[in-house]
Amino acid sequence: xxxxxxxxxxxxxxxxxIGLNLKGLAYESIPINIAPGKDEHLGxxxxxxxxxxxxxxxxxxxxxxxxxLAILDWLDAAYPEPQFLPAxxxxxxxxxAFALTIASDIHPLNNLAPLAYLREKFSADEAAIxxxxxxxxxxxxEALEAxxxxxxxxxxxxxxxxxxxxxxxxxxxxxxxxxxxxxxxFRRLAALDExxxxxxxxxxxxxxxxxxxxx
Length: 215
Ligand SMILES: N[C@@H](CCC(=O)N[C@@H](CS)C(=O)NCC(=O)O)C(=O)O
Fold this sequence. Notes:
This protein is α+β, with helices and mostly antiparallel strands. It is built from nine helices and four strands, in the order βαβαββααααααα.
């Protein structure tokens, strides 16, 4: 069975949980507590699985695969239904661009390691950290909202079915809510997020529904 090295609050792991659920795949979630002070991802056991010491990592019959978008690509190739990209090549490229705005531009700036570095090297207090965190989501979401406004509204970001865009958007919106970013300015994004969160695959993947969730 597939094993997902996971953490309930990790938005990158959340993407993979959604993907696994959309494909209808059974998997074992192995929680790795990456919370500051717990730092299970830095231990030798997990480092042997993922030398990058980050979640998610998916253990498969072929070995361990890291990087949420690579994992989603592999799932799409290995388990073709339903596809995470629209069939039309142009729409597929745009869905990928949407996902990359989140996964490559927003998320890395707000990860635990850079935030820890801001605290340690630049004496950033929690107010400054919150400001930093919200800033990079806001900048990325402004671009995505502007791109969406050029297209007719749809139930999911690229049509009637979830794609990689929704898979990345919903976890990023969860981060935004956690850090008290007002999503009111992002009407289209907020509507997409709300719609996708009602889908069973997204409900099952939600942070609060994970076995390691701290409530
Ligand atoms: N680009 C990676 C990002 C993975 C990642 O950074 N995961 C975070 C949790 S969301 C993590 O493990 N952070 C640990 C750290 O920053 O030390 C992916 O998409 O899988």
